Amino acid sequence: MRTKLKITEGIFPMPVLMVATYNEDGSVNVMNAAWGTMQERDTVALNLTETHKTVQNIKARGAFTVSIADAAHMVEADYFGVESGNKVGDKFARSGLTASKAEAVDAPVINEFPICLECKFIEYQNNEYGCGVIGKVVNVTADESVMVDGKIDMSKVNAIAFDPYTHGYYKVTERVGEAFCDGLKLKK
């Protein structure tokens, strides 16, 4: 037996992405965006409306960064989703986090988040099926604390995911299988 739910955005887990830009005055702006994904291997798609301060900044600067939020900074990550950069100019400063300039684009890297994708703005799409920012990933950096033998160890990242059913955050920490390998056991 199945139960009908009153929800439309029911894909779980949804990533908790921190999208960072510079404001006109050079200060840092960050927003929480759960509706984002990789469109291709080097292309990010973020479902964001043009009313967001972040989108205005992306268009003005031609760049942004996308960081993976972690459990240690869940409160700050949530704050970036509940406070608007259009209303609070010092939103990032209030978080207590720090930033440095990205190596490859005109956007900030939030130092406390473990993984950061530096993106060049490609285009803004707006049609009947959605809207959003498309960006080309030109550089990816990771904090050394999440690296093992030159590779990212996702169990050390402690990434968080958004649950649209209950509006909760969950840690993504345990490796349960080997992609492109475990399924071969069923292949004949």
Automatic annotation (TrEMBL):
Signal peptide: none annotated. SUPFAM superfamilies: FMN-binding split barrel. Residues 9-149 form the Flavin reductase like domain. GO terms for molecular function: FMN binding; oxidoreductase activity, acting on the CH-NH group of donors, NAD or NADP as acceptor. It comes from the Bacteria. Keywords: Flavoprotein. It holds the Pfam family Flavin_Reduct. Its cofactor is FMN. InterPro entries: Flavin_Rdtase-like_dom, Flavoredoxin, Split_barrel_FMN-bd. Belongs to the flavoredoxin family. PANTHER family: FLAVOREDOXIN, FLAVOREDOXIN-RELATED-RELATED. This is Flavin reductase family protein.
